Amino acid sequence: MTVLVPEAELQARYRRLDEVPPQNQDTQPGTQQEMTPEPDCGEETYEGSGKLRGKVALITGGDSGIGRAVAIAFAREGADVAIAYLDEHEDAEITGDWIEKAGKRCLLLAGDLGEEEQCRVTIAQTVRQLGKLDILVNNAGEQHVLDEPEELTRHHLERVFRTNLFAMFSLTTEALQHMEEGCAIVNTTSITAYEGHQELLAYSATKGAIVTFTRSYAKALAERGIRVNAVAPGPIYTPLIPASFDAKRVEKHGSGVPLGRRGQPAEMAPAYVYLACSDSTYMTGQVLHLDGGRFVSS
């Protein structure tokens, strides 16, 4: 990756964006256009160098936040990009415009990936319209705050698992029919997989399962030459935050990490590029921690 501004200026930019007023949204997974200020998804700072030239990628949750940042980076690295999302059509169209400005083809696929049939349709349309599938980024997710553990119901648990985990299994199963040696799968887990979270019980459980999914599928697909890795973001400024927490919590979100601020989606994208491209040909079954220094693994 090449950035258009020096790191010191980037850090200053991110500190300015960290000054977030109280705000929240009523529906999951939230929309980026309603955020003040809007997150930095690398629109003005990411300049690719052809690391994904000729590739086709599918990014779930690609309409906003980390998904949008990854979509922009992949396109500028030379990939055609399909983005799957729930129903945030305006956000998706903005992401699509950025992909097309990079001179790449874009496919927008709306639907609930918690439904198995939608996963089949998403993979089939990607391959049919873009010709193949080289990279699958399992990034879509939802989370809901519970004040007390007793509030956790089977319905709530099943809903979050369908979106965050079952969709990942279904998409991967369908994608493997089209993937071959040199292809890559990149999953989004979370710092909550390692630390847990007292209010996000179902979400944390799915993210822990995604870590094991990543390690197990990496072993299962190693002989085929398909690599499977993951990224574990910390407190990142995405629509999911105001869609999950109350206004005051959003204002203080990320303040407790060693780097002293929440992260921006643009700071996540290079890790996904690395795991998707040939720079990481000897890496599989691994998790990259991008969390401002909050979790330090042994």
Descriptive overview:
- With 298 residues, this protein is of the alpha/beta class.
- Helices cover 38% and strands 13% of the residues.
- It has helices at 7-17, 65-76, 89-101, 116-130, 154-175, 192-195, 201-221, 247-252, 269-276, and strands spanning 2-3, 46-47, 56-60, 80-85, 106-110, 135-138, 184-188, 227-233, 287-290.
- The strands form two sheets. A seven-stranded parallel sheet has the order 5-4-3-6-7-8-9, sandwiched between helices. The protein has a two-stranded antiparallel sheet with strand order 1-2.
- The protein starts with a strand and ends in an 8-residue tail after the last strand.
Q: Which stretches are low in confidence, meaning pLDDT under 50 for 5 or more residues running? A: none
Please state how the strands of the largest beta sheet are arranged side by side.
Answer: 5-4-3-6-7-8-9
Main sheet characteristics: 7 strands, parallel
Instruction: Specify the structural class.
Output: alpha/beta
